[in-house]
Amino acid sequence: MKKINFLIFLFLIVILANFSSAHQKSIQVKINEDGTSTEKILWKIEVKEFFSFFPVGSWRIPIPKEADEIKVSDKYGNLAFSIAESSEKYNLIVFKNSKRIYYTSDYFFNIEYKLKRNPIFYEPKFFYKRTFSRSPTDDSFSLSIALPENSQIRYLKENPLNQYIKDSSIILEYNLSINETKTIEIEFNITGFSPDLGIFLSPEPNLVEINSNYYEAVLPERYANYYASILKKADVGVEFIERSYGFPSPYRWKIEIIGFDDLDFEVHTEGFYLGDGRIRIKTTNLQKTEKEILYTLLHETIHGFNSKFFSESVPNFWWEEGTAQYISFLVLENLSYNMTEEKNEIFNLLESCKNIDKTFISTWSPNYYIRNNGEINCNNTKSDFVSLGYANSYFIVDNIVKYFGNDIFKKFYQTAEKIQINFSSDRSILNNQMNYVLSNATKHEFTSTLEAFGIEVKQVTNQEEYLTPILTGLPILEEDKTNKILAFIIVLTLVVSLIIFLIIKTRK
Ligand SMILES: [Zn+2]
Q1: Which of 64, 127, 143, 458 stands 20 to 30 A from 474 (CA)?
Q2: Are residues 88 and 149 in the same domain?
Q3: 319 and 425: one domain?
Q4: Nearest-5° Cα angle at 425, 423 to 426
């Protein structure tokens, strides 16, 4: 009898648990003056049909990976939750409703957490960036962002639906339609009013210097610990590059994060190699994921390694950007990061743009195309020569490694060193030199290989042609000679002194 009751009960549940429901989400963001932000999500569950209810079951919501101090509650109190990985930038918080949710109940979840590096704060400027999405099940959706008191907005990427001031804070309200994703960017300043001086004063950032084995960086103190942990990983990366290239790090790297300027917003690349071991990183880069920050650092470090052979007057080209990307990916994979998404992005772009004439890569340089960029239409996918140039550069280096192995970099630089080649600032000579060095390093005629990648080269018939006008190294040889002469003089002096000493001793 009990069994039958139970079966009837189960049957009723199946009938009654009709999941016709509506979700109402409202997200309230409070940007704090200390460079953190708090997000509160009020998630209301409404059962639409009188006889329906939600049994106790799992709910999930994506939140940014760096979310901290997470709290989940429902209308009855705190809820236990677990975290599941969802994507590169988001985690899913998973929790259960503590009671059934009926038609009549005014049921809600409250989810709260803190983001430590959003906005990025470099006194007196703040930069906030966050992507929000409205899911198809969100019947209603509202988003409001409160700025700290006394903020002055400098830039807004998306115009809000409403903007008003409440308790001396600017409030921005946004509306998203179903399935819409919006990236909100807000740049603002806070300057404090000094009653004594009668003027607004810009606070100064508290900058500190942090050091690792290979790097030193100057940045606001609030990011120091976080960045130090990243530099430790970058150190492992430098050791990896040393092994791949077969020569020690040519510099102790100096990282400059100099505060927001126009570059932070106008320029496409996250970092720049400035020469002499100096790496400039955009301030907004601090807001990226650990993997992205490391990637930028390693990419620029590889430019620095390359600069041992390719001076600054040598234009940026496929080898430069190809190695910077390829080796960074390799290092990150060695540090257990998953690079599948990044690689897929490159190969998908190459696939959709496979009909574009590849010979542009011969004289490609990102700086030129960043300035004079035009869109290209690849098989209905919009792209540009900057992205396509990077993708092709990666592809070339990736293929060279596939054919000739991971030690190709070491062989390449050993050959360049041995023949004392001075790479030319003329692009066509440079490509012929690359052909010459690669051919020598691999004992393989590289002309057709490079031509297949779109690089215009001449076959190396007479090596003198490539070496004679560009052979330098005399200053280096002279320096070597002086060192040898000096060493010889020291040894000779020692030997003579020893002989004199022995003669004196035996006479006694
Ligand atoms: Zn680069």
Answers
A1: 458
A2: yes
A3: yes
A4: 110
Amino acid identity of residue 253, one-letter, is W
In a domain, 365, yes or no: yes
Helices and strands (H, E) in the chain, number of each type? 13, 26
Check whether 88 has a pLDDT greater than 60: yes
| Digit-coded pLDDT (tens) for 330-362 | 999 999 999 999 999 999 999 999 888 888 888
Q: The domain containing residue 498 runs over which residues? A: 478-508
From the CA of 459, how far away is ligand 1's center (Å)? Answer: 28
Q: Strand, helix or coil at 304?
A: helix
Clarify whether residues 43 and 107 are in a common domain.
yes
For the entire predicted model, the pTM comes to 0.82
Examine the fold and report which residue of 169, 194, 219 is the final residue of a domain before the chain moves on.
Answer: 194
The 3-class secondary structure across 383-407, one letter per residue, is EEHHHHHHHHHHHHHHHHHHHHCCC
Q: Tell how far the Cα of 335 is from the centroid of ligand 1, in angstroms.
A: 21
**Span from the CA of 59 to the centroid of ligand 1 (angstroms):** 43
Pair (183, 148) in one structural domain: yes
Specify whether 75 is located in the same domain as 190.
Answer: yes
Q: In terms of domains, do 403 and 448 share one?
A: yes
Q: Is residue 434 part of a domain?
A: yes
Specify whether 467 is located in the same domain as 484: no
Q: Report CA(207)–ligand 1 centroid distance (Å).
A: 27
Which residues have CB under 8 Å from 266's CB, separation 6+?
A: none
Q: What are phi and psi of 433, to 5 degrees?
A: -65, -40
Q: What is the pLDDT of residues 388-423, one digit of tens each?
A: 999 999 999 999 999 999 999 999 999 999 998 889
Total number of residues shown for the chain: 508
Domains of the chain: total: 4
Whether residue 96 contacts residue 56, with contact meaning beta carbons closer than 8 Å, is answered with: yes
pLDDT of residue 14: 45
Domain presence at residue 427:
yes
Q: How many CB atoms lie within 10 A of CB 272?
A: 18
> What are the pLDDT digits (tens) for 33-64?
999 999 999 999 988 888 888 889 999 999 99
403 Cα–ligand 1 center, Å? 24
